[in-house]
Amino acid sequence: MAAGIFAVRRDAGGIAVASGLAALILGTLAAVAWQARGLSALQIWDWRAVWFTIWQAALSAALSAILAVPVARALARRRFPGRRALVTLLGAPFILPVIVAIMGLIAVFGRTGAINETLRAIGLGEFSVYGWQGVILAHVFFNLPLSVRLILQGWQSIPVERFRLAESLGFAPADMSRHLERPMLRAVLPGVCLAVFLVCLTSFTVALALGGGPSATTVELAIYQAFRFDFDLGRAAALGLVQIALSLAALLMARHIVAPAAFGAGLDLDRGPAAPRGFHRLADAIAITLATLFLLWPIGAVAVQGLPRIPALPADVWAAALRSIVMALLSALLAAGLCLTLALTIARSNKSWLEAAGMLPLVASPLVLGTGLFILLRGHLSTDDLALPVTVLINAVMALPFGLRALIPAAQTLRADYGRLAESLNMTGMARLRLLTLPRLAAPLGFSSGLAAALAMGDLGVITLFATDQPTLPLKLYQLMNSYRMADASACAVLLMAISFALFWLFDRGGRLA
Amino acid sequence: MLKPTVLTLALLTATSAAAQEKPVLTVYAGDYIASEWGPGPQIEEGFESFCECDLKFVTGDILPRILMEGEKTEADIVFGLNTDVTARARASGLFAPHGQDVSNLSLPVAWQDDIFLPYNWGETAFIYDDTRLENPPASFEELLAAPDDLKIVLQDPRSSISGLALLLWVKAIYGDDAAQAWERLAPKVLTVTKGWSESYGMFTEGEADMVLSYTTSPAYHIAAEDDQSKHAAIFPEGHYFMAELAAQLASTDQPELAQSFMDWILTPDFQKTIPLANWSLPAKLDQDAWPEVMRNLPRPEKTLFYSEDEAEELRKPALDEWLQAFSR
User: Fold this and answer.
1) Average pLDDT in the B245-250 region?
2) B159 and A228 in contact by Cβ < 8 A?
3) CB atoms within 10 A of CB B65
């Protein structure tokens, strides 16, 4: 009895966070539906959008995960100068603001991009980046880094001692793969696929810009239209519900195929598994080179275009940059706190609804979320004052699922490996947090906060709905474009990208140094 | 704990002191209008020079926000609504008459609205670069008959106002045959973007031969970049009219200020700021007073326009036709 009460009290933080999340996301949806006095029926085009959304997200998830495996393996077992920097740098696309990513992809894969120039020069046909293939390309570009990162963490969670043991037993690469790598992949890949699937589910600007037209419509566009053009809140709520149902279905499916991999604790030797030689060495080199080219070339292309004009950017842009940085830092701190609380509780109690609640923000439409909050809070607070705090909150919440994906496995491992030791030492509360939890989880926590900061930096969704006299940097970027100042806009894009990346790097690096 | 409280108090008293000094006129405006590259700063400076007030621009999605806030809105004025979506705004009953004489506006269409006051206007057009496209289509019909490797970028009518204008433009020219027109146009459409800015960026990057924009777009390139290569393809079938509108809210707590702002909009003082900041044509200004670059732009001979009721009625069926043609 007493033990039961004790467990509930210890789980209270996580349960509160998860309930808060569920209440926020489902509550805002309910508020929108209530304001609309019910849900509206979906039209034929909405169902087509649902179908397109599902298959492109599934294909993007499968491709990202499959392509990430050789890259992550190569990065896990090879040591070379600049490897750490490369791992961090490869994460860049995931945190790129959508508009910047589109610029970069078009600079490389567009009709006048380098790839097509080359294809034409050697007499081959053009590759069109417009159409469903463009959507998939962009989604792989965005999500390959996330996948590599998550799978790499999986690889690193196998203690080096295991690889050494395998080596001393004379394991060939194939045996190594069967006994160590495949069980790890079986544990990690469903989560990776799920995360990418959910990200692609809510994609909107990218799908439109590179999709070639209305056949590449996602549910999120339909929500946008319902809000902005039809002001049909009932339809927006119905679509928001469809989006959440899709994600819950995906979540349930993923749960059935996840098998935890138990490798036990090691001594944290950062030497990496002994790498097979010969042909494997070449294959790894190719995997790393191709991934680097694919992920960094578009970013380089944008940088080359925009860098020279950065000094000429007007003062307003810098003020907006500062405002965005402060908001991003607040979002990151909030996200880190929520994420840690939730992940520790999930690791301890294994309640599946907690994890589901943690994943909910991925599929909640920021538009539904923002509008719902707006409806709930108006009358209590001035909407002007709400714009910035609400944006900070929503950004923190939107980044949670990614942080959780990185933190939950680490928290589970921590609990499995050191939980009993800590309990036998009667180590609880702040002491346990300071001496055991934070040091052991610093790396994934730094990564999560970095992601949250960077994603908040590039977000444009909510703030335009709330309206403000204090624009953020992404808003400035659009204002420049809308005033025809495309060259300044590309400089602004580089600035945005540089800040997002610097924030991510600082947190991520900080986490790994701790 | 003390410090933040003191700071907050200081800030609060500072703002309320300022508010006591000068009344605030809150203007909800489209995103780009209030940016320092739009007409906003000049409008703010101009009005504050005589109003004894503080004009505050609040930018964002105007219409959804106003509809959500209803009568509790803090807005005194909305600035930047578009002609094709006013039916819903009017139906909300939130707006008050502007009280201006609109009989002699410099618009190509007759304007009789007593609530929504146009401050600028333009027409939809496809923009091309003569260094890349030497023989642009000379009519809408020629555009539809052009080879499929002529690539154009459009905006989605479900997410952008210019995309919606294109729907109505095609409807105005082709009427019941609009569906066939879309089917002929579809193979030439490189891609469709969420908003105007993404499209125009793709065009200036050289990705597409033509982009859906406005007849006044070349003026920016000429005036600000000294680039003479961008032109609007002028079609004899006519071009679709678009104007941006201002209106005052009936619920305003500053009725006199709001009225004096509305009174100011059609004055030459205000109108002169429009062409080179908004890159569109002024709603009431003699042509001799336009900047040279705007005067010299080729103008379509025929202007097409739907009343807001027609536009509202046509929107859904026209959208269905468009979706149908593009999903083949």
Assistant:
1) 96
2) yes
3) 21
Strands (E), B3-101: 24-29, 54-59, 77-82, 95-96
Q: How far is CA B122 from CA B112, B242, B299, B312, in A?
A: 18, 6, 10, 20
Q: What is the pTM of this model?
A: 0.87
Question: Which chain A residues are closer than 8 Å to B64 by Cβ?
Answer: 227-228, 231, 371, 465
Q: Tokens representing B95?
A: 């707006």
Q: Does B67 sit within 8 Å of A208, measured CB to CB?
A: no
Residue-wise pLDDT tens digits, B145-176: 999 999 999 999 988 999 999 999 999 999 99
Distance CA A8, CA A308 (A): 57
Minimum distance, in Å, between the CA of residue A340 and any CA atom of chain B: 26
| Sign of the alpha-carbon torsion through B95, B100, B103, B108 | negative
Which helix (DSSP H) or strand (DSSP E) does residue A480 occupy?
helix A473-482
CATH number of B123-241+302-326: 3.40.190.10
- Phi first, then psi: give them for residue B115, nearest 5 degrees: -110, -50
CB environment A30-41: b (16+ within 10 A), e (fewer): bbbbebbeebbe
Say if the Cβ atoms of B31 and A221 lie within 8 Å: no
8-state DSSP, A347: H
Contact A468 B60 (CB under 8 A): yes
**pLDDT tens digits, residue range B253-274?**
999 999 999 999 999 999 999 9
Ranges under pLDDT 70 in chain A: 1-9, 255-275, 379, 381-384, 461-468, 514
B32: nearest CB among A209, A221, A479: A479
CB contact under 8 A, B206 and A112: yes
What's the confidence (pLDDT) of residue A245? 84
What is the predicted pLDDT for the residue at A461?
64
Nearest CA distance, B228 vs chain A (angstrom): 15
Q: Are B323 and B242 in contact (CB under 8 A)?
A: no
Contact A214 B326 (CB under 8 A): yes
A40/chain B closest Cα distance in angstroms: 16
> Beta-strand (E) ranges in chain B?
24-29, 54-59, 77-82, 95-96, 117-129, 152-155, 189-193, 210-214, 230-233, 239-249, 281-282, 303-304
> Which CATH number does the domain B20-121+242-295 belong to among 3.65.10.10, 3.30.450.20, 3.40.190.10, 3.30.565.40?
3.40.190.10
The nearest CA of chain A is from the CA of B307 a distance in Å of 17
Residues in chain A closer than 8 A to B217 (CB atoms) = 484
Is A482 close to B197, i.e. CB distance below 8 A? Answer: yes
Record the tokens describing residue A93, joined without a space. 């696309």
**CB–CB of B317/B242 below 8 Å?**
no
- Nearest residue, CB atoms, A482 vs list B58, B196, B224: B196
pLDDT tens-digit series, residues A279-290: 888 999 999 999
Flag if B190 and A479 touch (Cβ within 8 Å): no
Q: How far is Cα A15 from Cα B325, in angstroms, rounded to an integer?
A: 50
Domains of chain A: 33-261+273-297 (1.10.3720.10), 313-514 (1.10.3720.10)
Three-state SS for B58?
A: strand
Asked if B192's CB is within 8 angstroms of A464's CB, the reply is: no
Residues of A in contact with B186 (CB under 8 A): 213
Query: What are the residue ranges of CATH 3.40.190.10 in chain B?
Result: 20-121+242-295, 123-241+302-326
